[in-house]
Amino acid sequence: MNTHKQNKLDRIPSFPPIIPPVLEGAIRPKWSVMIPAYNCIQYLEGAMQAVLEQFPGKEAMEIVVVDDASTDGDVEALVKQVGKGIIGYFRQDQNVGSLRNFETCIKLSKGYYIHLLHGDDQIKQGFYKEIESLFDQYPHIGAAFTSYEYINEKGKIIWDNPYVSDEKGVLKNWLTNIAQKQIIQPPAKVVKRSVYERLGSFYGVEYGEDWEMWVRIAMHYKVAYSPEVLARYRVHEKNISGQSMRTGQNIRDIDTVIKTIRLYLPDDVRNKITAISRRNFAEYYVRLSHKFYHEYNDTFTAIRQAIGSMKLYPNLLTLRLGILLLLKVIFGYKYFRKFVEKVT
Question: Using CB atoms within 10 A of its CB, is residue 317 exposed (0-12), middle (13-18) or buried (19+)?
């Protein structure tokens, strides 16, 4: 791997990085469970244990932790302790950023199916069997995913996630559906390595890069789904989502991704789907601004999300809730509590 000092442009590729095929003659397992990790050592053991509980043997699955030069503990020692020779370990020479670390994960993989399981997320019992059944039943698909749940730092379920479909199978009209909003989280998704070889790796932004990838895949391949809740996506302040929301970078990145996805859509629905996606994200962020203000006592993040949502898609809801948030900050919530109850 290139170890020269990486600047911002290096950390966030402008184009999808090329994924070369596995060397001819290499021994290939069916599964590559690649675990990108950066300063999440308190969650990493749980992520590894959940995979080991479903480990089918080295002939069928490789498991590798790809450490982006973490500084919060001895990740290698933890991998050796928990993995007991089953889980491999690779450490970047320096911190290269999430996108380059994902790229490294994919390039190091040798399996036919790649599961990028972030070090702070988890899977539940039966995940790999369920995904494998989808690939076996629908061999023409490029990717498959299950339903999932949101958990907090302590592993407690905090949000219910609506089903994409009530039935297991290949999704219909998937491109136009996934282009409207992000309804998949990484731990729930498995992609054929051949798909990455054709389409390249993640690029462009650090927040929303997975959504762009899922839409890019949907443009070229059929995707299958199971409504079984078999993955767990962790929400905490140290992950990329939390960091980008504090700075408002999440909205700037989503705006970039929406513009990119627009080019993937058929001409006859392009404007409609773009408008829907802007509205969906803007309304989500403006509602989230009130959550930051009330539940997390984070006024600055709340303001950034409210203002950003009004810029992303100025409609009656975003303007009303955005202005309301600003009034709460300026005058205090108690004064507006009765008014809030009426309008929300």
Answer: middle
